[in-house]
Structure formats: C-alpha cells, structure tokens
User: What shape does this take?
Amino acid sequence: MSRNMKCIVKTSAGTGNLELLEKPIPLPGEGEVLIKVHLAAICGTDVHIKDWEEFASKRIIPPVTIGHEFCGEIISVGYGVNEKRVGELVSAESHIACHKCALCLDGKENLCINTRAIGVHIDGCFAEYITIPSENAYVCNPDISEVNNAMLEPLGVAVHAATKISLAGKTVVITGCGPIGLMAATVAKKLGSSKVICVEPNDYRAEAAYKMGADLVLNPFHFDIVQEIRQECEGIGPDVVLEFSGNAGAIKDATKYIRAGGKIIVGGLPANEISLNFTDIFYRGVNMYGLSGREMYHTWKIMTGLLNSGMDVSDCVSHILPMEEFDKAFQLIESGQALKILLRP
Ligand code: ZN
Ligand code: ZN
Assistant: This one.
C-alpha cells in the first residue's frame, strides 16, 4: 500500500479552489475507523462549498477534503474499537454528535448544538481513504447494490421526511425533484401513499420522477399549481407536502394548497428569508415541521429495512465517474442535466 492517497481538497476560501491532491493516508485515532472508500456521491452541500456560499464560508476552514456520502470497507481500527469491525462494509452518518449537550442527552443527536460534519469540519470521503468515529460507520448489507449503499446518507433525509408522519393511504406532494425529492417519491410509494404528485420545472428531472414512482409530475410554469393540486387531491389538497425545493414560491404555494389539518415537512433551504401568510397556516390548522439530517440511528434502521425489503433508489443516479473527473461532475450538476453523480476513487 502506498503511503499517499488521492483526494479532492477545498484548498482555500473563495469560489472554486477545489484540487485533486495527494495526501498521506490518515491513521485512525482513538475511537475511529479507517475506511477504504468504494463509491462516493456528490451532494448539494459540496456544490455550496465549491461556490463558497454563506453555508460554507461560515463553517469551513480550508484546506479540507470534501464529501460525506459514501460506502466503503473498514480496513483498520483505532484504540478502543473492536478489531472485529475490520472487513465490515459501511456507510456513514455524516453528523458527528457530541453526546454531551442537552439535545444529545434528550435523544436528539441530529440536532446536537456541537455537531461536526464529515467533509465540512473534518476531512471527507472524496478520497481513497477516510477516518471517522466508529459510531458513525453504519454497517451496510453487502447484498444491496453498492450504488444504493453509497447513497444511504441522502436517502436518510428522504426517509426521515417520509416517516415524520404516517404516509399510508395519504396523498403526498413532493416539491423539488433533486436526488432527495426523487428518492422521497420512491419511499412515499413504498410506505403506501395513495398518490404521489411531484412539482418540478426541469423536464429531465420530471422524467426521472415518473421512473422513481411519481403518479403525476406538474411543471409549475405550465399550471396554476394551487388549483391543479387541490383538484388532483379530492378538491381539498394533499394530506402531506414534502418540501425539498428551497424555492420561496413553491413553499408559499404549498401553504395554500395543503388541505386543512395537513402537514408540510420542510427539507429544502431557501437562499433568503421568505414571507408567509399565516392566515393560510393558523386558521386551517396546518403543521410545518423542519427537518435536520437523520435520527441517529432510528432513521438508519428504517431505511436499511426498506432497502432489505426490495426498495431501490438507484434510478436517481445519472453518472458514475472516476474521482479525477470531479470538475466535469460539478459542471454536469450545475447544468441541470444530471441527477445524482457518484465518484469512484
Ligand atoms: Zn449530503
Ligand atoms: Zn450534542
């Protein structure tokens, strides 16, 4: 084994500044595991880091290796970790909780006030090897395809949203068909939704939404969305909205077409503050829930159970590229002509 590895590093502050570099293979510290990365996935967060948006500039101190969605094999363990973990196929919970703050002690580790994130605060998985806390290395089923296992982290966001309330027999609208919205369509159908309607302006993504189980995909530029969705859902609107677009207009529309007593799960982040008319929410008994990450490790148990029972979200992958072609991968994502892109180190 050579002592160096290839990795994609955010080398300095500002737009761009992503480089393929050689770095020493890290050693697992106390409580950590060293993982050989098999397959990694690019997330919207990585694009924010590349473009040095506020999210990134407030959190990242370069240089840092980016990437947090992957699967791989544990090849060595640090002090205090059971040697038997060597050889396990794992994916990673990307949020490292402190286990000491009031929220952690209340069982809400996904909301930990001292959270550190893989590929943000510590070196990430766009590399041949990565070290992470042993606790965060979640065992994968080797019988599930590598592509599905590489996307457990984002799938967890879709599953967290879709399990916040029961979807069985319910009408569900999904706004925004990026990879998480697309996966949510598959999850909602699997969980027994009576009808899944996606709202997505990009034709390429709309086509993928049908492939992933949507019953109907509506382009918000071609329809009066509020009227159309109400009509499609018994004239009174859907039971549930899963919001992944982060688009102000889409969120406002959702507060208008959701049925009285309905629930809006917010998983998309608008770039700026938005104004909402609370008359639509308050008098009609609408509930809005914010969503952060995955419940540790309740959501992981549910999603691996869904995959083990035959669910497959690999249709949301449009490209698998060698890690060296990361520039091309980011360009494809920003062109809107790609879905999930996976990188192979
Ligand atoms: Zn992600
Ligand atoms: Zn904490």
Summary: The pocket of zinc ion (ligand 2) is lined by residues 97-98, 100-101, 103-104, 112-114 (CB under 6 Å). The chain has twelve helices and 18 strands. The radius of gyration is 20 Å. The first strand starts at residue 4 and ends at 10.
